Amino acid sequence: MVTFKVAIVGAGPAGYFTAQALQNAQSDDKKFAIDMIERLPTPWGLVRSGVAPDHPKIKTVSKVFEKIATAGNFRLFGNVELGTNVQLVDLQAKYDAVIIATGSSVGRKLGIPGEELPGYLSAADFVPWYNAHPDYTGVDVPLDADTAIIIGAGNVAMDVARMLALEPSELDPTDTANHAIEELKKSNIRKVYICARRGAEHAAFTSPELRDLPKLEHTNVIMHKSDIAAAITAAGDAPEKDVKSNLDAMLAIAEQEKTNHARTMEFLFHHVPTEIKGAGKVQEVIFKTPSGEKVVKCGLVISAIGYEPAPLNGITYEKGKVLNADGRVKENVYVVGWAKRGPSGVIGTNKSDAAAVIDLLIADLKSPKAAGDINDLIGAHKVITQTHWEAINTAEVSLGEPLGKPRVKVADKSELLRLGGL
Ligand code: NAP
């Protein structure tokens, strides 16, 4: 029996499903010792800092992650950053394989004038702000004007719009960051526009998310019937299944009885942003529309138009992805998840993606190295192990219990280390 040592960098869904694929590939003659390295003191990646807090069901996948983490051949090294506390070349020397699962955390740029103005944010900053990510607690989110514009027609745009258009007390029973609930309760925003540059037939929303919108109890959701009718015509007689399902859900929204809440979320299609303008801060967005130029006044613009990976030393990037061939990067280095295929797909997509990369990795394996492991590299640095993380997890859940929340997320790194017992 041989044991291969594998380091997975990044404790998000792609990282955990990769660990699971390795666990599933074990046999009587081949085992894996898995070390998962994560720069934050907390694991779970986007399940903790990306998924919208009003969609708690999606987060139940964390139970699967904890099962993988406690299966016996898995160690967590949280609070350890690749490039700072350990270097890729050193991991390559010690491990039989190193797998990059660091996702795509940087928001794509629109590339139009005005993106530098205060009041313009990327979803890549706003989402981790409301999800208590330690690096984003200081993001300035101006909520004083009555209108916000979201650019993009994907599920992230929809999450962001909902968070701004919900009655904020609806967030009380969720794990939204305390600082965000406080700010959102003071928000003057009453109108949120979601602006798509193309027609509804091209929207990247998925239909379960669209079908959830009419369930909002305190928000008018407006889609214009003429937009959806035009999209149905444009989609033709035999639209793809997903497109048809989306258009059915959108038509139902467009046809629903009007409500009269104080807060409104409105979808604008064929609105191409060309400039963000304002004197020292965002005041309006100029759009190109089929009927000409249109100006929409607002105090906040959030773009949700996709992500790029944050660069890692020793890794080559191309077109917003780690340069790779089906997950192979270079000598004993592999990549999975958004860093491999770009920022698309839901959490479950990572399962089949990881399994395919692990098949290739196993085909590449020779004989196991005997060169030590990460413990030889990190010295006295404070590491969050699975036991420390479980202490943090328990503490956060207990903080939430009396408040009727699934947990109160702690955003301060030193407080997280303290809760972990370090
Ligand atoms: P996405 O689904 O790729 O959507 C990006 C949107 O941005 C598209 O509508 C795109 O329009 C638009 N866009 C791109 N460049 C633009 C530009 N320069 N100007 C205006 N619009 C622009 O990306 P995402 O919303 O970031 O989501 C990423 C992935 O996570 C998706 O697979 C999504 O389904 C998933 N996700 C799932 C959930 C969930 O299941 N609840 C929640 C969040 C995210 P074009 O089509 O015209 O390029």
**Terminal residue distance:** 36 Å
Known CATH architecture of the largest domain: 3-Layer(bba) Sandwich
Share of helical residues: 25-40%
Largest sheet data: 6 strands, mixed
How much is the radius of gyration in Å?
A: 23 Å
Family: Belongs to the ferredoxin--NADP reductase type 1 family.
GO molecular function: oxidoreductase activity
Keywords: FAD, Flavoprotein, NADP, Oxidoreductase
Cofactor: FAD
Characteristic key phrases:
422 residues; 6-stranded mixed β-sheet; binds NADP nicotinamide-adenine-dinucleotide phosphate; alpha/beta; FAD/NAD(P)-binding domain; 6-stranded parallel β-sheet; Rossmann fold
Can you give me a brief rundown of this structure?
This protein has 422 residues and is an alpha/beta fold. The protein folds into two domains: 180 residues, Rossmann fold; 199 residues, FAD/NAD(P)-binding domain (3-Layer(bba) Sandwich).
Per-chain topology:
Elements: E1 2-9, H1 13-24, E2 30-38, H2 46-49, H3 62-69, E3 74-78, H4 88-94, E4 97-100, E5 106-107, E6 120-122, H5 123-130, E7 147-151, H6 155-165, H7 178-185, E8 191-195, H8 207-212, E9 219-222, H9 225-235, H10 241-255, E10 263-268, E11 272-277, E12 284-289, E13 292-297, E14 300-303, E15 307-308, E16 317-318, E17 321-322, E18 328-330, E19 333-335, H11 338-341, H12 349-364, H13 375-378, H14 386-400, H15 413-420
Parallel strand pairs: 1-2, 1-4, 2-3, 4-19, 6-14, 7-8, 7-14, 8-10, 9-10
Antiparallel strand pairs: 5-15, 11-12, 12-13, 16-17, 18-19
Helix pairs in contact: 1-12, 9-10, 14-15
Bound molecules: NADP nicotinamide-adenine-dinucleotide phosphate.
